[in-house]
């Protein structure tokens, strides 16, 4: 039985793949659960159109991410925090603080898309990555200063 997968199924295939499975597995599990549809002519055309539209949307999303990276440019994020005399800060600087700083500058970036290499526990300069898209990563400088 040939089916078209609607989502990734481990051991079977990936989204929009046409795969051959045993009839019972397809009829009794994959199709009723909404994981797949029968591979006929009309469903194949529908999936091709979905792929084409998804590619167009993905290109637009990628272009928007590239535009945002260009707008951010070489910005230096400066976070003020309480620190001891040795330069060790109380607590740690988190991606939430960085997201708030960027929001104040006019850039709406989800905190989950901010990648901090190691935990920041000292005053100084750091480099962080903004994961704007799966193909668009942007490095920015982070400066931690004492309040």
Q: Would you tell me the overall average pLDDT?
A: 90
Low-confidence stretches: none
CATH homologous superfamily placement of the largest domain: Ribosomal protein L9, C-terminal domain
Please give the number of β-strands. 9
Q: Rounded to an integer, what's the Rg over CA atoms?
A: 23 Å
Tally the helices: what do you get? 3
Looking at the structure, the CATH topology of the largest domain is: Ribosomal Protein L9, domain 2
What share of residues are in beta strands? Answer: 25-35%
User: Strands across the major sheet, in which order?
Assistant: 4-9-8-6
> What's the CATH C level of the largest domain?
Alpha Beta
Distance between the termini: 67 Å
* Count of separate structural domains: 2
Describe the structure.
By secondary structure, this protein is α+β, with helices and mostly antiparallel strands. The chain has two domains: 2-64, Ribosomal Protein L9, domain 1, CATH 3.40.5.10; 69-146, Ribosomal protein L9, C-terminal domain (Ribosomal Protein L9, domain 2, Roll), CATH 3.10.430.100. 34% of the residues lie in helices and 33% in strands. The protein has a four-stranded mixed sheet. Strands 2-1-3 form a three-stranded antiparallel sheet, covered by helices on one side. The model has no long low-confidence stretch (mean pLDDT 90).
């Amino acid at each position: 039985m040939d089916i078209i997968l609607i989502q990734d199924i481990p051991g079977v295939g990936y989204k929009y793949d046409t795969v051959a499975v045993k009839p019972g597995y397809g009829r009794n599990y994959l199709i009723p659960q909404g994981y797949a549809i029968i591979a006929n002519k009309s469903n194949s055309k529908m999936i091709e159109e979905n792929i084409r539209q998804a590619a167009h949307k993905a290109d637009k999303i990628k272009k928007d991410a590239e535009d945002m990276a260009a707008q951010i440019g070489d910005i230096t994020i400066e976070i003020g925090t309480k620190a001891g005399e040795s330069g060790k800060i109380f607590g740690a600087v988190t991606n939430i603080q960085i997201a708030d700083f960027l929001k104040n500058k006019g850039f709406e970036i989800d905190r989950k898309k901010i990648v901090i290499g190691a935990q920041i526990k000292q005053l100084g300069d750091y480099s962080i990555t903004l994961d704007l898209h799966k193909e668009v990563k942007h490095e920015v400088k982070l400066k931690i200063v004492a309040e």
